[in-house]
Amino acid sequence: MSRRTLLAGSYDIKRAYQRNMALGFGISGAVHLIAMGLIVLFISMGNKPVEAPSYVIRSKQELIVPPSLSQQQAQQKIATPERQVRPPASAVPTPVPDEEAPEEVEMETQDELADLAPVNPMEDMSGNIDVDVDRVVEELLPSPDEFVPFEEAPVQVVSVTPKYPDLAQRANIEGTVWVKALVDKEGKVRDVIIVKNSGANAGFEEAAIDAAKQTVWKPAISNGQPIAVWVTYKVDFKLK
To answer: How many structural domains comprise the chain?
Structure first.
């Protein structure tokens, strides 16, 4: 076989190879394009927008209350079994011995019930109601032994000097009394007790109580509000 024949054969094979290669690429590309087109078509069909139903409003009532979508759907009736109502069975009395029978109950008549009602019922509820304010306030005040916390202690604003007892003055007796005063939230003294007496029995305690009741205080402060507390202080009785 000559060299020219070999070259011609190889050229034909190369041309056939190129033609088959081009045909294969073309078929493969067409298949891919068809597959992509089908996918896009399927997606576009699945995302089809839902058209909202249109309604025609003919009156004001329809404008206020919009029609319900459930009204457009056919209502399905649920078949319920019919219940058969049986008549109640009549009770048959059973005889019992006399000793087991209940005693007869006597019912009051209308006249007897009327006698149970009050003779003069209260009809007018708008009468005056008296309230013992002082007693209510005293119940709200702390006891002498009750601890009441506060941020600012009470301060004496008006001080009253107790009167020196005549008996102690004539006898040249001096003494010291410890008093405990209840100062309310207005700074007034509500009560006074003796914590420690003088021991002289010369009237120092009575004079200290009278003076303590006349004093005026700046009330104690707790959480920014005035409160009632007990205050303990000393009263000295000295001769000049």
So the answer is: 2
Q: What tokens appear for 89 in the block?
A: 């069975």
Whether 178 is in a domain gets the answer: yes
Rg of the chain over all Cα atoms, to the nearest angstrom: 55
Distances (CA, A) of 118 to 70, 82, 113, 129, 143: 63, 56, 11, 21, 43
| 196-204 contacts, C-beta under 8 A, 24 or more apart | 198/237, 199/175, 200/168, 200/173, 200/175, 202/165, 202/167, 202/168, 202/171, 202/173, 202/175, 203/165, 203/166, 203/167, 203/168, 204/165, 204/168, 204/175, 204/176, 204/177, 204/235, 204/237
Does residue 107 fall inside a structural domain? no
Mean pLDDT of each 10-residue bin along the chain, 240 residues long = 56 73 80 82 65 57 54 53 57 62 67 68 58 64 92 93 92 94 95 92 93 95 95 92
| Full domain range(s) for residue 5 | 1-41
